[in-house]
Automatic annotation (TrEMBL):
Top-level taxon of origin: Bacteria
UniProt protein name: N-acetyltransferase
Taxonomic placement: Bacteria, Pseudomonadati, Pseudomonadota, Alphaproteobacteria, Rhodobacterales
Domain (N-acetyltransferase): residue spans on this chain: 1-156
Signal peptide: none
InterPro entries referenced in this protein's UniProt entry, alphabetically: Acyl_CoA_acyltransferase, GNAT_dom
CDD domains associated with the record: NAT_SF (cd04301)
Xref: SUPFAM superfamilies: Acyl-CoA N-acyltransferases (Nat)
Pfam families: Acetyltransf_7
Amino acid sequence: MLIRNEIDSDIPAIRAIVTEAMLMLPQTSGTEANITNPDITDADIVDRLRAEDALILSLVAEDGGDVVGYLAASMARIGVECDWGLIGPLAVLPSRHGEGIGSALMAEAVLRLRATCKGAALVGDPRYYGRFGFSAFSGLGVGDCPPEFVQALPFDAVDPQGELIHHPAFGLKQQG
Ligand SMILES: CC(C)(COP(=O)(O)OP(=O)(O)OC[C@H]1O[C@@H](n2cnc3c(N)ncnc32)[C@H](O)[C@@H]1OP(=O)(O)O)[C@@H](O)C(=O)NCCC(=O)NCCS
């Protein structure tokens, strides 16, 4: 399996994987619903970030010539601190879950973000992201989302504090 940057011809497969994988979310955890704009799908968010040139990472996992996983990252702010890398969406083809594809995408993303960002942040299931070093921080949040689902991995010694401000492409109503 190869983790690489997206190329134009990956875009339909990325849309399909993100759409298919996210259909599983309501059964796994409803947490993202707390922050998601119902009018914008995760696949739309990727397209909107791409259209605004806001994807700082757009990684695909390729296996046997097929795209089987995808991870996006965009710039974010936490409180007044710029230069955080926001990971998401992360999606793996459902038929390929549990093979380490998500972990490989996460490892590459964290490695790359370390070079350019203060830290990485995301909204997701702490039972999954804890294994990559992410954790919740007192005072770190996104709107009404339960705080345990808002997680960060600071690359310096400073704990993140404040609202995790997503790129406008996410369509969230956030106080800047
Ligand atoms: C979450 C996701 C990206 C993980 O991808 P993956 O390639 O299956 O993950 P890996 O193979 O690297 O890791 C699998 C491990 O993670 C665990 N895991 C996966 N999702 C989990 C979750 N929501 N909570 C807790 N553990 C989870 C599996 O049980 C497995 O555990 P094990 O290593 O102890 O056997 C994939 O399940 C997916 O696309 N899910 C639907 C979309 C989604 O939830 N995206 C994340 C948005 S927050």
